[in-house]
Structures are given as structure tokens and as C-alpha cells.
């Protein structure tokens, strides 16, 4: 497939490389800053870096819109695509309908819109096994859907058709499972730092906890700790220790309550 | 070393096997239910199962008290130990002082008390690499401390001298890093189940999140998601979606606030 990528962040970088590794042709990489686009094209076979959103002369059949959520509207307002192109955004939060509305409001010709969402967190420094990344596909017509599913199946072993509503729910779940858990790990590290203890002491336990949760039928089945045990004296001791740290105190209370509600 | 283990739960099981693997002699395994003690002794070379807490005739030099926190007081009230024995509990939450007080109040002879705390979550079904388990040692006299450190160093590559206060702080941190994170994973699974989505879709992302957090200088350095981005429209969307789920709504709010406070 001939593909152009709009955006030069982590998602754009990882997808562009993956497309070429799987014998697709990356035509253009767009960024507002040419140097950022060039940082990606320099890794590719014959892609061109561009700061123009006029793709009327492009040979690409698919345009991957991999910019930040807030930049989508502005990019769409300036975007000129060749006839019959598919425009697919990579956002976990924006609906297919939003993209369609934007393209209709700024353009006369109807554009085939789609979602090509890799359910993964990408960092520039870190290689990702794209085969393991679930791809969530959605399109407003069957032919585009089939093309994107085929493209995704070439990159990954896990490809799902996911509606915008389902994608939103997955995103909420991911915030709990990833963003909030990461913050809890940050808070735990802070607690150890304050007492000049090494966070490394906790790492084997954290690793084991996660492996157990992932291997379990349901993470709730392997819940441990004072809340699920109903060990009130330990919980009170912990709350007394946390009494001067409002945020930690509140999180401790509300998470313990939620655990006890669940396991009541 | 000659060791007896009081208790027949997961910690007792894993430690007993580890002691024998490292050429220590396990003399007795105590449980209120003989069958539970026998389940462990059947795995060992010559340990005896017992339901009596009178160890006056025991050859053991070290007694590992691996019962639940709530059972410690009752066991101590009945415990009869041979002269010069060391009694070490394996609890993350109980102080050395508590154990000393209990033993003084129930016994005429002074007992050498200690803590031998493996900072790990143990399940009966799951083998643990004991070499990777950090051991936290504390004792009320140097000779006992040295003996326990030597014993732990034989089992594990990570052995720390940790005071009761430090152990308490580690335990608070572990509640955040392990118990609460596990619960967040359970909540995330519940969100996917309600919408008939597969939790497996999120597993690669969860795995990557944890690997990143563990590899980072500080987990806060790799925080992602709408809260740290200040993406209020996504957060509002999520809160509207969660409005009928009081516990999820509150956790979402308080965790997002805490993330924003941190990264302000």
C-alpha cells in the first residue's frame, strides 16, 4: 500500500518504520517542523519530508493522521487529499464521526474516514514488538475497513473491529489500568524516598503482583493486602502514617473502600 | 541451621522448601490442623508435623513464626521454646517490639526476638525465585541479627537490615504499588466486561506500562494519559461515562487530581 503519515511524533515514527518493514511504501511524512519530519524520513527508503498539507499530488492511498488530539481539527481544516484517499486517525479518544464532521465542514468532496488505532504507549527511545500491539479498526465503508484490517493484520497478530463507543470505553479502562497504576507506582516510590529507602526493594514484589494479575482469570481473584483481609488495625496504622499527606490519605481511603466494596 | 516453622500457609511452605534446598534442617512444622502441617512435611526430608506449641524438646535453634498477623498473639501465649532459641516473625506489619512484648508478658525467660520478612507475595500454586526476594532482617541483638542475615543471604541475593519503622513504610508503599494497582486492574477488567470487550486487548499496553515504569528513573517520568496532558475534554468525557458508577467516578477524579498536582 502507498501511505503518507501526517505527524512526526512517537506514533508516526513507530508506524512508519513498521509500514516499510512490511513492504508498504511510505510516500510523505508531514510535520510543521521540517526537521521533525526529516528525522523520520531519514530512517525510511524513499519517503519525503514535507511541511505542506496539500497532498493533491500525492500517490498515497492512505493518510495516517497521527497528530495530537488537539491538533486534529486544525490539520483537517488545511488538509487537501487526492481523490479516493482514506484518512485514518490514530487517536484513542476521538470518534470516527468527529473526523467525518471535520472533513465535511472543511471540504466539498466526501472523504473516506477511518480509525487506525494501535492500543499501545509508544516512546521514541523504545522499540516495540508491533506483532503484539492490538489494532482497533473502524471505517465508514466496507472497502476502507477491509484495506485497513489487511494492513493491520500484516503488522500485528491482534486486529479488532472496534466502534468509536467501544474505543472510548477501552480508553477509560486503559486510564485505570495504565495511567493510574503508573501514578500509584510513582507515589509508592515517593513514600520510599521520603524515608530514604530504596524503591528497588519493592520491584520484585511489583513484578510478581503484575504477573499474577495478568495470569489470573480476573485480577480480583488475586487481590491481597489489608483492605481485602479486613485488617482494620493495619489500615488505621497506615492512615495515621499518611495523615499529613492529603492526597495519599484520600487515595488510601478511597481505594481501600473500593476494594472492600468489591469483596464484600 | 536447625529451624522449625510455626504456621503452614504460603510463607511457611515456600520458606521451608527454600531452607531445605539450602541444606538447613527443618525440624518441625506446626499447624493447628495436622493435615496442613503434613502437607508441608511430606515435601521435606525429615521434618515432623505437629499441633503442639511446646517445643521445649526441639533441636531447632530458630523458630520462624509464619502465621497470620492476627494469630501471632495467641500463638505466642502458648509457645514454649528451648533455651537460647531465636523467634523470628515474617510479618510486614508487626513491629519487633510487639513480638518482644508478647513474649515477655507470657514467658519468664527472655526470648531472642527477630524479624525475618520476605518482601514478596506468595501463592501455594506458584513457584518463586527465592534468589530474587528481598529479605528484611531485624533483631534485638547482634548475634541473632548476624545469624539471620547469613541465613537470608544463603536464600536470596538481596538482604537488608530494616527497622520496624522502615518496614512499616515499605508496607504502606507496597499497598500503593501492589494492592491498589491490582485493584485498578480489576476495575479496568470490569469496565471492559460491562461493554463485552475483551480485557486481553489491554494486556500488551499494561505490560508495556509496567516495564516502562520499572525501567524509568522515576515512574513519574513516564506518566501518560489525559490528566498529565491536561486534556480536560477527554477527562470530562470519561467522567460523564462513569457518572453512574460512584466508586469509579471518585477514583477517576481523585487519581487525576493527584496526577495533576504532581505534574503541576
TrEMBL record, chains A, B:
Q: Cite the Putative oxidoreductase/dehydrogenase Rossmann-like domain residue spans from the record.
A: 2-102
Which Pfam families does the UniProt record give? DUF2520, Rossmann-like
DUF2520 domain residues are: 133-259
Enumerate the Gene3D superfamilies for this protein.
Answer: NAD(P)-binding Rossmann-like Domain, ProC-like, C-terminal domain
Task: Look up the domain of life of the source.
Answer: Bacteria
Cited InterPro entries: 6-PGluconate_DH-like_C_sf, DUF2520, NAD(P)-bd_dom_sf, OxRdtase/DH_put_Rossmann_dom, TM1727-like_C_sf
PANTHER family linked: CONSERVED HYPOTHETICAL ALANINE AND LEUCINE RICH PROTEIN
Name it.
Answer: DUF2520 domain-containing protein
Amino acid at each position: 500500500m502507498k501511505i503518507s503519515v501526517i505527524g512526526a511524533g512517537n506514533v508516526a515514527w513507530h508506524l512508519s518504520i513498521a509500514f516499510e518493514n512490511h513492504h508498504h511504501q511510505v510516500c510523505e511524512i508531514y510535520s510543521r517542523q521540517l526537521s521533525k519530519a526529516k528525522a523520520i524520513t531519514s530512517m525510511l527508503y524513499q519517503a519525503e519530508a514535507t511541511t505542506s498539507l496539500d497532498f493533491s499530488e500525492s500517490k498515497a492511498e492512505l493518510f495516517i493522521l497521527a497528530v495530537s488530539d488537539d491538533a486534529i481539527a486544525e490539520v483537517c481544516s488545511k488538509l487537501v487529499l487526492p481523490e479516493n484517499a482514506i484518512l485514518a486517525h490514530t487517536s484513542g479518544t476521538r470518534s470516527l464521526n468527529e473526523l467525518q464532521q471535520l472533513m465535511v465542514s472543511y471540504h466539498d468532496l466526501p472523504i473516506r474516514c477511518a480509525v487506525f488505532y494501535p492500543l499501545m504507549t509508544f516512546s521514541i527511545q523504545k522499540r516495540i514488538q508491533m506483532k503484539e500491539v492490538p489494532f482497533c479498526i473502524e471505517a465508514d465503508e466496507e472497502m476502507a475497513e477491509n484495506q485497513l484490517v489487511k494492513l493491520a493484520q500484516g503488522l500485528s497478530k491482534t486486529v479488532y473491529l472496534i466502534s468509536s463507543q467501544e474505543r472510548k470505553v477501552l480508553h477509560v479502562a486503559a486510564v485505570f489500568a495504565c495511567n493510574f497504576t503508573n501514578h500509584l507506582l510513582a507515589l509508592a516510590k515517593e513514600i520510599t524516598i521520603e524515608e530514604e529507602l530504596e524503591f528497588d526493594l519493592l520491584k520484585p514484589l511489583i513484578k510478581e503482583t503484575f504477573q499474577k494479575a495478568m495470569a489470573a482469570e480476573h485480577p480480583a481473584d488475586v487481590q491481597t493486602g489489608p483492605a481485602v483481609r479486613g485488617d482494620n488495625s493495619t489500615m488505621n496504622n497506615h492512615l495515621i502514617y499518611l495523615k499529613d499527606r492529603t492526597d495519599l490519605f484520600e487515595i488510601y481511603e478511597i481505594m481501600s473502600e473500593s476494594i472492600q466494596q468489591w469483596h464484600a
